[in-house]
Amino acid sequence: MATKSVSTFAIFIILVLVIFGISKIEAQDSECLKEYGVDDDGDDVGFRFCAPRIFPTLCYRRCQKDKGAKGGKCLWDEEGSGNVKCLCDFCSEEPFNQFISPT
């Protein structure tokens, strides 16, 4: 009878450890990065916020100011294409790596 109690207790402890371990998993990029979208005039802000190579980017600053995000990143489609999106980052406020290029 004592072995059954010990086994049940051991299973319970393992289950608790697994549950606490799962809760510490980092959020995925899809949960952290949301596109800024358009401004009040309905124009896409991507190129305007990302083309000037200043640090921190306008995308980074405007995501903080307008969207309440921790920062922002620029996602360029192809090199030289001019297609760019401003992604507001709700998980990380690190000001480096503000430009994302496709791999």
From TrEMBL:
Major place of residence:
secreted
Q: Name one GO molecular function term.
A: sodium channel inhibitor activity
Show which residues constitute the signal peptide: 1-27
List, alphabetically, the GO terms of the cellular component aspect. extracellular region
Q: Name one GO biological process term.
A: killing of cells of another organism
Return the InterPro entries for the record: Knottins, Scorpion_toxin-like_sf, Scorpion_toxinL/defensin
Q: Which family does it belong to?
A: Belongs to the DEFL family. Protease inhibitor I18 (RTI/MTI-2) subfamily.
Protein name (database record): Knottins-like domain-containing protein
Keywords for this protein: Antimicrobial, Fungicide, Plant defense, Secreted, Signal
Keyword Mitochondrion attached: no
